[in-house]
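sorry for the late reply, my laptop died twice this morning and i had to redo everyting from scratch. anyway the thing you sent over, i finally got around to it. pasting the sequence first so we're on the same page, its 227 residues, then the predicted structure underneath. double check i copied it right bc i was rushing
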Amino acid sequence: MKRFWASVAITPDAGIALDGKPVRTPGRVALTLPTAALAEAVADEWRAVDGEIDPRAMPLTGLANAAIDRIAPDPARFAAGLAAYAESDLLCYRADSPAELVARQAAAWDPLLDWARGYYGVDFVVTAGVIHHPQPSATLTALGEAIASRAPFELAALSPIVTISGSLVAALALADGGAAAEAVWLAAELDSEWQAEQWGEDDLAIPPRQSRRRDFEAGVRLLSLLC
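ok and here's the structure:
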């Protein structure tokens, strides 16, 4: 679809209007945003369209559509899908060698687990290797409740952060001020960076990494615009 509108405005209810007509989600629901800052940012995405619409250049609009169409009808179900990441959280599965990688993982991942221990009063089973080890039921319950308490737009923001990092703990730390976005990104990419250092950068891996980074940053930005 090519751009067909001349003007973009924010409506009194924090919706988006093109030439005075309200924008709707793919599900035909009004695209209404929960904060003025987010409404302005989404409006800017529509203002920036030049020629054909490229959804990849409108990540906030995409996340807002997801929040309204996919998450809001059943937030508990969506949150449960994210909560499942706590059962095999990236941060709990470590290398047993070489020593430098073990040390790097500990330096990047231990502070995030320590934050969760203090913030939620939980503990974790940390193991070497990829064989699954169950986490304490109290930990799963606490983390599940923490993600279930989020509103649809916050769940939409956290979704790419959780799925890209493979860590519910890291995403919650980012959302609740326990970690900076860059620290979470570096923690998520630590193993990939290690492999690239050892064997060289794989040209085929660069575009997917760039795509993950864009999606991660979109989630981070959405979180910041909900405050």
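The first strand starts at residue 8 and ends at 10.
thats about all i looked at so far, will dig more tmrw
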